Amino acid sequence: MAAAIKPNLRKCNQRGRVLTRPSSLYQRKSDMASTPWNTNPPPHLYKLLSPLEADHSFRWLETPEVFLKRADLFEDQNDCSVPIAFATSTPAKRRAYLEQISTRDTKAQGLSRNRLKAEFRKRETEIPNDQAGRIAFDKKRARKHAKGFAILSLTETIQEEALWNKYAANHSGFGIDFHGLALAIYLNSFPLGIVPVKVEYRDEIQPFDISYGMSGEGYGDIMRIKDKNTWRFEKEWRMIYYGFKPNASSPDEKIRFIDKGVVIAIPDDLIANVYLGRNADPLLEERIQNILSKKAHPIRLIRNS
Which H or E run contains 273? Predict the structure, then answer.
């Protein structure tokens, strides 16, 4: 594990007090019992951003906005695409799966039961005869399925050296400190069903049994599985949206669907602090200072050392 860093709490902008919680409706609603998910995010979640993608990075502060990335575009090709064993399952399990999804999904998908069965039979004819081909078939389905997800990746730590090196261009970028639970509640308030999940790191990632997909939540749960040896340092939380369609019409003026994901405008008071990388250029610091000076809600700028 890479060494941790210690933040220097010196204010880079002497602009009033630091709020411990946002004043928005979404924080006032953040009663633990009222949230529609099993595990609440921690009080603070962070996003590290690179100055090498300045136009994208600064929109997180200026608008401000968050970006949920299409899951099949994630850097690790195995991430967000743990396969469900469809082709590699027995014919009996596939028949049971057909009966289950016929009753659960027909109305939601606007499909007749007969049409759904016909599509299933067509898929059956596409299954390769050899085991290697079946494994590849399931992996291809997993990647295709990932296109329907959009994910906001955050971390529960701002003190991990490897995160700054990987996502903030070796400490030359900055990190945004969000009020974690309030952000989750805000995103969930839109008619998209966005929910927070804590990433589960496993020593070995195996395909899910086909019966797992029958639970209704099975496919969403797959989006939180990652390899422990490679990614454990990230301590990642994800805000997950299922049902993504590129460039679709938006149900709200604060939401934009683009080819690579979903952009959602957020209130300023969901941001608690901004952390500046220790190798950040003075011009970057000046630009962030200028952005924060125009905010009605005081946001502290902190330099990491």
Answer: strand 271-276
DSSP 34: G
Distance between start and end Cα atoms, the chain: 19
Helices (H), the chain: 25-28, 54-62, 91-109, 113-125, 131-146, 161-167, 180-188, 218-222, 228-231, 282-293
Instruction: Give residue-wise pLDDT tens across range 191-247.
Output: 888 989 898 888 877 777 776 654 444 556 677 778 777 888 999 999 999 888 999
**Lookup: tokens for 90:** 């027995």
Residue 212 is predicted with a pLDDT of 63
Report the distance separating Cα 29 and Cα 46, nearest Å.
21
Count Cβ atoms below 10 Å from residue 115 Cβ, excluding itself. 12
pLDDT tens track for 58-72? 999 999 999 999 988
Residue that has been written with the tokens 């400490």 in this structure: 171
CA distance 270 to 121: 48
| Residue 105, helix vs strand vs coil | helix
Are 140 and 123 in contact, with CB atoms under 8 Å apart? no
d(CA 237, CA 200) in angstroms, rounded, equals: 9
174-179 and 44-49 strand pairing: antiparallel
Q: Domain residues of the chain, as ranges?
A: 7-80+148-304
Task: For residue range 258-299, list pLDDT tens digits in order.
Answer: 999 999 999 999 999 999 999 999 999 999 999 999 998 899
